[in-house]
Amino acid sequence: MKKTIKVFAKVFAAGLLVCLLISTTAVWADTGDTAHEILTEINVMVNNQHRDLPDDMRPFVSNNELFLPLRAISEALDIPVEWDSDTFTVYIGQGSQERVDKTHLEVAVVTVPWSLDPIASVAAANALFSRQVFDTLVDLDYETREVLPALAIHWNMPDAQTVNMELRPGVTFHNGAPLTAYDVQFSLERGADSPYSALVLGVISHVTVHDNYNFTIHLVEPFAPILRNLASPIASIVHRDTFLAHGGDSWYSDTDDIPPMGTGPFVFDSSIPNVRIELTKNHNYWGTPSQIDTLTMRAAPDGFKRFLELEAGSVDIAFTGIPMDLPYIQASSYTTVMRTASLNIDYLGFNMTKAPWDNPLVIQAINYALDTQYIIDTVFDGVGSPALGPLSSLAWGFAETEPFTTNLDRARALLAEAGYPNGFGRPVEIWWNIGNSTREQMAEIVQETLAQIGIEAVAKGVEWAAYLDSIAMAEHDMFFLGWVAITGDADYGLFDLFHSSAETASFIGLGGTNRTHHNSPTLDELLEQGRAEMDPVRRREIYAQALEELRNNPSMVPIRQGEHVVVVSNDLSGFTLDPVGNHRFNRVFFGSTMDATDGTPREINVVVNDRRQIFSADMRPFIYGDRTFLSIRAVSEALDIPVVWDEDTNTVYVG
Fold first, then answer.
1. Same domain, 619 and 504
2. What is the pLDDT of residue 524?
């Protein structure tokens, strides 16, 4: 019986035949979990010429799969094959002899920040940069969103308005200056006064310094989630003296004379505005030191071009946004697609100040009418998941409520109960901001869906500035926006979207953040209790009540919980995704650093002609004793040549 793996030959000329003739004499070896049949007598025919191979090149059979030692592959096929025990990497083919360990990381992003100041912008690009160059007092666990030590090692909150903290000793800024409590005082008080960082740090009244390492943060009101706010890149600690020497103004992307000065894992080197930012390794970093020496973050606005550059090897990580070519990207053998749910919610908002949107039954009806999974599949190419409410399921304080399962009959019944059995007597408008194609597509789907329950609607594109201004002045019917709970806490995810005080409070001149003009004394009280309550169990109960209130008296249709999609080169390891999007690059490295234990199969990197290959679990190479083995199917896929194994005669035909 023959098993054939058919591929097109690229590496070898047509007609090349390599025949490995293997006798049936065998012994058994135990390599951890699996017993392997080691074949002891080998005849090798290359182009009909017999070739002797020593005994240490014996292949073996495991789970009906034939494995060959690397030396046998190299000698039989007459191509260079190298094993790097330091990085657990097999190098096959051209370039293996001249390879150089890679220590530069190239990251393609949608845009680079216009400002290098942590508090000068709330944009994702700014936060991503800040996470590399600066540090915060505390950090958040990626999965649990629990608070972890960072620049501060000890803290306590004697009440909901006071935070006592102690700094980590021995931390220095990039210029060698020691981190002190005076830098913390300067950074936080400055951030509290900035309109861009007010939603995160505006609750801070002042900071009292006790000595170089101990200080107290005083809040303007009881605010239990302050620690999660302090973990945001917006709360990054800057070097006071350097900033003042810079002139006390913001650091911009063309700053080279007095660069941004933090304590983070990377040091600012240079930048070209709107093009690229160059960083170097901080060799004196207090935390996990970078495994790479230099880092470039460069702008590449076209998402698919970012991927093509990655596939070509000119970049190592590409941030994709919403990839419309995801199936093609996933099919690439040179890259890996990484996905994780985010703290973002895309929603359809209403104007609660006028009829019919002041009737909760109407908005419940539209929640029942819209098929959010269909919207995600159609508009977002399946990226993301149906929102389970106005708060991301990853946020601390999230609680499930009864879902609005798509049901047009239920929607029609609720409209009739609300007094609108035949629509609203006028066409209503669904606004989307011009230039945002995903929102335009969503508006068209909503328009079609509303028609099915008797509501006449018109999709209308509005320029961005007028879009926000008109929504702030309550001139709208429906609109699309998104919200990210950037602190990972329910307070940030809910208070500024729904509390009545956020209806008029201006955010960086763009109007209030409560754009549905939700005004509920019941909800206001719950949100105020939630941010003041110190007991975490009681806080969770409060937010569960708040989410139930928002389910019964909604002002929006939560459509989609976002998803981060990042494509990385296959020769990159150690990269993990942060649900907020503040990914760290100091933990990535090229190759593998897995521990080796003789007799235990393990994953090994395989680089063919300078490109890393990924193999399915049953084809992973591994070490046994002092030899590294590769399956014949892996050889076929790696070198792109046909391989046939005749089990009846124990013969392998390659080429």
1. no
2. 97
